[in-house]
UniProtKB/TrEMBL annotation:
The keyword Hydrolase appears for this protein: yes
Gene source species: Rhizobium leguminosarum
Molecular function per GO: hydrolase activity, acting on carbon-nitrogen (but not peptide) bonds, in linear amides
Name listed for the protein in its UniProt record: Nitrilase
Similarity section: Belongs to the carbon-nitrogen hydrolase superfamily. NIT1/NIT2 family.
UniProt cross-references to InterPro entries, sorted A to Z: C-N_Hydrolase, C-N_Hydrolase_sf, Nit1/2_C-N_Hydrolase, UPF0012_CS
Amino acid sequence: MSFKAAAVQMCSGVDPVKNAAAMARLVREAVAQGATYVQTPEMTGMLQRDRAAARAVLADEAHDIIVKTGSELAVELGIHMHVGSTAIALADGKIANRGFLFGPDGRILNRYDKIHMFDVDLDNGESWRESAAYTAGSEARVLSLPFAEMGFAICYDVRFPALFRAQAMAGAEVMTVPAAFTKQTGEAHWEILLRARAIENGVFVIAAAQAGWHEDGRETFGHSMIIDPWGTVLASAGASGEAVIVSEIDPAAVKAAHDKIPNLRNGREFSVEKIAGAVAGGVAA
């Protein structure tokens, strides 16, 4: 069955209470446009580079304001509410970058902890070490919903095609990629990576993004997107500031794409052998 999906673009600051209020306002706007599934970005609850300041306001899952607000919105609006991710304090002192999907009754239907940590050094001098503060997830899931089979990823996960292929092989029809992409990497790769994951797996991709200059001094790329299984961008937001984008999602388009390009069925196992190139005195056999 088809459904209307929304991606909510935010510019989260350092105060989870203010971010929760912004999330609620934008989610209500999405539902007013007919959305029954709404996704928010990675780190909806807080973007804070100062780790000590972040830890001072972090809460465990049972006491987190974003989790509480997400559940309440799902019940109030009768929707499937997807908090793309928020920072959750763990018992060992580290943090989980955790996404939540709430059903219309407010229950948590799925949790997903970001698997791949963004440990990079960029050309513009930006350096990120998520693994220093966050505990990586280790489990991918495909969730059966009344309207679609849904797979989960967060931001940097989009650079690891095997995660998406495994979910597609498990039946996923819609892949979710909430993110807080940096401006530099976003300009280079955001759209092409999202469209590639959609095309190579014949699935819809819904990606709610953080956008603009944040209170902690970082700049994120924005351009939240909804993409169909043929790689067509159905809806896209701008480069900065809040936005709500909405599109109709028809899972029948997934089967149609798979029938045209049956690469999931045609895939074959193979081995990789590393061989030597030219050697002194001749050519390797």
